[in-house]
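Input sequence (420 aa), recorded before submission:
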Amino acid sequence: MVKEFEGIKISKIKILLILMVLSILLFSSCTNFKTQSQFEKNLQELPALIPYRVGDKWGFSNKDKKIVIPAIYDWVDFFNDGLARVGLNGKVGFIDTRGNIVVKPVYDWADNFSNGLAIVSLNGKSGYIDKKGNIVIDPIFENAFRFDDNVACVKINGKWGLIDINGNMIVKPVYDEIYRAAKGIFRFWVGYKKWGLIDKKGNILVEPIYNFIAPFHEGLSLFINKDGHCGFIDERGNIVVKPVYDWADNFSNGLAAVRINGKYGFINRKGDLVVPAIYRKVQNFSEGLAPVKVNDKWGFVDKKGKMVINDIFDEVQTFSKGLAAVEVNDKWGFVDKKGKMVIQPVYEYAFPFSQGLSIVRLNGKSGVINKNGKLVIPFLYDAIGYGETEFISFKNGLAWAKIGRKSGYIDKNGTQYWED
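Predicted structure, token format:
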């Protein structure tokens, strides 16, 4: 009887062990499925042709790192509208997705194509080519910008004007500077002193009476009058917010930061002070919240001026994808919109989340974490991220990465698209 009972007991233990093993295997397979699913999802974000470095030469590979276009160039850019810029022997040209040279590398510099045309520079002069490499606007300009709404800003004989897509001068080059301010509107500078606005036909919208006019943001443009005070105008040049502020920033999320008597707050589009000017510093609203500095610490306010996350942080960044990087005792982590520390402050620095990932620094090296705080790319790199005018982490599933003197692109899975 005892032996029979012991046999039954041992059988039950065996069954329990088998069930435990099956549970572990099932859990592991589910975890692997999720990981594999994310792995595949990351691959799907990649372009069909990826810039790939072999030694000190560049070509293109597919997602499997199989070289599709030989690495024979000094540098390459991403494909844009079927063509990619390539550098060879100090000159720039374009190739198609099969690796055929469409525009011979004969130019000193070339921009990406926009509206079917690309700016090219040769012997210090700029002009425009089409996608077949034909020069459609002769390189006679000292400087030139991309076409937008079939109009481009160009500089000739030291002055700026506007041309149409056929190269006809539609606004005579009489301005010291001219830049796009909004669709069909341009801000100009005369005598290197005063700013005004014109439309794309050259009609004056705002006489050159202001010390500065900024590009339009959310339909309004910041201007500075002769007394150094800031206000806002609409696209017709009408003053919407009177110039009564010592300083102001562009509108973001419907509000603009302003300074009154050395303190910062926020106004709406009517000029109403909706967040009182009581703060030492502020940053722009993003995702409904704005960082504000009280004494020596940062917190976050909503659009009604309510402090929704207490001022307890040494430094902060604006919210991105529901999370904001914050610094506590020289270490960076992330909080959610309720102020909960969802990723502990253990990093030397943290960049805003982009495409679900954040680049972070630890022990002098860069790695990548996801929104759960999991390290998805190890701390191997001296730097990660690239951009022409600002820091960009991942774009099209890829980021620029550097280890010592070696550099190239990595994807979200940490795959390196280079070989030495």
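Checked by second reader. The longest helix spans residues 2-44.
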